[in-house]
Amino acid sequence: MAIAPPRGRPNVKLVRGPFLKFEPHPDHVVDGESFRELCARLRDAPEPPLLVADLFSGAGGMSLGLERAGMKVVFGADHDPDALETHAHHFAGFSAGWDLGDPAVVAEVGELLRSVEIDVLAGGPPCQPFSKAGRSGMRHLVRQGIRDAHDKRRDLWESYLEVIRLAKPRVVIMENVPEMALDREMFILRTMALTLEHMGYSVRARVTEAWRYGVPQFRQRLILVAMRDGRSFDWPQEVAKKVTVMNAISDLPVVEGGWRPKGGARGWAEYDGPRTDFQRAMRRGVSDNSVGRVYDHITRPVRPDDLAAFELLDTNMRYSQLPESLKRYRDDIFDDKYKRLDGDHLSRTITAHISKDGYWYIHPEQNRTLTVREAARIQTFPDDFRFAGSPTAAFRQIGNAVPPFLAEAIGRQVIRTLNAPPQRALKTHETAGKLASWFDSDPAWAPWLRTGNRWHAIVGETLLGTETAANVRSVWPHLAKLSSPPELLVNRETAREVASWIGKDSDLEQLILAARRSEESGTPWTVNDELLAELVAEKVVSRVAAELAMIVDAEGEEPVIATAGALRVAGRFELGRERWLTNRNTDGRLAIGRLIGFADNSRRAHLGLIALGATVCSPKGPDCGVCPLEEWCSYERADRGRKDDSPTGA
């Protein structure tokens, strides 16, 4: 039987014409010899700029930002032909439509960039998830510093690492979606960081909100910066206040949906001039004969039923609240299908989806979706930057781009770092080594995490995770005999008596329930990932206890666990205070990952960090004298400074 399509699903048309075609940049090159000659000329300048290669460049948001910071982009590569034409028009050098998933192409790119001693390699490689089996094999190779040399089409982030290995740039800048880093194990990010450290780089990574660098939208991005020769990199200073949507676009003329200027691709809308500092920055590169013009201020037509919906829609209204007669989509699935942007706040993230229908981006005051120029403004592309292809292609290029303002802030900080006296950055193998050794030195702490037994980890963390050392010493020998769910069920009366000694009767009953669930699963001797997920979902076992169980199992994943204690250590270590983490699942886990690394000792380092937060780095104040991270810790240095500045020096 045929399945009926969703109610009233429309055929949303692409935005037609005008189609822009561009000539390449005057210094565009098409072969390796010309490329090397161009780079040699730039090197011979009185003040030679840093030379940049931008892989997965798109239209050139990263390229534009780095050039505005003072660098020179000489190489771009992307698979989108419209984006490649845009990049070739605006930037010198190579703009190559090469397949960076092909090992032969990767080798050619790496050697070409090495031949000109490229300074900065930038890019945002797409990432695909790995199977657990694939992760296990790759984890072993990375930890041993071994390169997977067999001939296969690489995942593109692996290709990116291979180009770095071959080209040996002074600086690596990577931009990507936060999801690349924030899976349970943070596998790709930790793999990249360890691989780069093997190559001699120091690595910093952060999930950054683009609005903190003047971008008028809520856009979270993962930024990784790696400096060769171990230089320390600090993040650039943030802007004082947010730039709102109307700060960015209020100067652009009123147009109706579907409006097109006379003259096709050469047509324009009349323009009265900028009103805000942001708008003046957007107009800075406009030529004298275009001062009264704005290009690409066009968008898709508005259907009559959409117009009726847009007229009712305010910034707080959801699609599901529209009258039934105006709904063309199921509101249980598309609750936020239409979104009018709030002119006094940030835009929602501009993504490539804007090329499909634009309903997420309805103008704050006009009953239409955003124009190409408005979307470009919100991404911080200036008004003299135009996009090859159709308006639909332009929207796609804009949505896929790195905001130039964000790239410029990173680029300026890179230049400052390279021009400053070198300061050695701390690498993860150093902090991880200290944490692992400290954990190994005191077997009395959390013995349930040392046996490699998942059930031990759950029992010990549930019953003894917050107990004193004395209670642990007296109680654990009895609990250690309960090494599997069946053994708890057989000995549950004895276990109840032991739990009563420390007032954990109700917690023990939860463990008995968990053991019964294990018995029902048909594999009572195996506490596998699926059972753990079910126990957490049913609130039988705490998430922390389940994740600790995964860490102690040498064959399983290594999830990065953001316990309160681990976050406290990371916050004090990084900035001298614990209340700096805006989100424990983003910057908190990244900070923890940076301390524990991904080498062979990362499990023990992670357990050591958790132990440190539970026993030494307490909420009331740390016992710095016994902390393995004391010599590098910002909190310890700040505390020493406070004592030195006190009247008594005490």
UniProtKB/TrEMBL annotation:
Keywords: Methyltransferase, Restriction system, S-adenosyl-L-methionine, Transferase. SMART domains: FES (SM00525). GO terms for molecular function: 4 iron, 4 sulfur cluster binding; DNA (cytosine-5-)-methyltransferase activity; DNA binding; hydrolase activity. It catalyses: a 2'-deoxycytidine in DNA + S-adenosyl-L-methionine = a 5-methyl-2'-deoxycytidine in DNA + S-adenosyl-L-homocysteine + H(+). GO terms for biological process: DNA repair; DNA restriction-modification system; methylation; negative regulation of gene expression via chromosomal CpG island methylation. It comes from the Bacteria. Gene3D superfamilies: DNA Methylase, subunit A, domain 2, Helix-hairpin-Helix base-excision DNA repair enzymes (C-terminal), Hypothetical protein, domain 2, Vaccinia Virus protein VP39. PANTHER family: CYTOSINE-SPECIFIC METHYLTRANSFERASE (PTHR10629), DNA (CYTOSINE-5)-METHYLTRANSFERASE 1 (PTHR10629:SF52). The active site is at C127. The keyword Methyltransferase applies. It comes from Calidifontibacter indicus. Its EC number is 2.1.1.37. The keyword S-adenosyl-L-methionine applies. This is Cytosine-specific methyltransferase. Belongs to the class I-like SAM-binding methyltransferase superfamily. C5-methyltransferase family. InterPro entries: C5-Methyltransferase, C5_DNA_meth_AS, C5_MeTfrase, C5_meth_CS, DNA_glycosylase, Endonuclease3_FeS-loop_motif, HhH_base_excis_C, SAM-dependent_MTases_sf.
